[in-house]
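Re: export button greyed out
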Amino acid sequence: QQPVQSPQAVILREGEDAVINCSSSKALYSVHWYRQKHGEAPVFLMILLKGGEQKGHDKISASFNEKKQQSSLYLTASQLSYSGTYFCGTERPGTYKYIFGTGTRLKVLA
Amino acid sequence: DTGVSQDPRHKITKRGQNVTFRCDPISEHNRLYWYRQTLGQGPEFLTYFQNEAQLEKSRLLSDRFSAERPKGSFSTLEIQRTEQGDSAMYLCASSPGPRDSGNTIYFGEGSWLTVV
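Workaround output, generated via the alternate export path:
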């Protein structure tokens, strides 16, 4: 089963904040976050390797709670360029499968 | 690095025809993935190569699908007897090493397939 993301979709005004969650029914050992714009390939945002790890990248940051098997992506002071679909990605333990979450469509309005 | 390149970028084919997509990963990346993505959905894992060895294959990859990476460099994905349900974007990605060591997966621009 793929990780489940919430919310499925969100609409923001420029400057507003958003949180996107990624939850897995199976253990997570690492989490990647990607953004995909319509018709384009996913673009890597960041990786979280350890439980509890938080990383920041400009105004986008993420946390990883290994015990809860979930990760969250924080978008602060959103910009128009943040629009797209966000996916979490993770490796299935014991396999070579790298799978993606269900996705969250984010639209930032001027 | 020139990035992951895929060819062709777009392909329109008639139902029943065979199609082949090529992927050139970033040089020295020994790990290569194929995904399929339909509109509104996330990428679905199809198969994984480590060098020339195909180590994982999804059940989504029916008998009509085959992938190769003969010399551990470029890879091909062939779909035989295409069906309308095969219409999708086929993404290739490569990585230099173990995911858990922090190595990122880099995606190509994708190959769009339309079966008419």
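Residues 83 and 107 of chain A are 5 Å apart (CA to CA). The button fix ships in the next patch.
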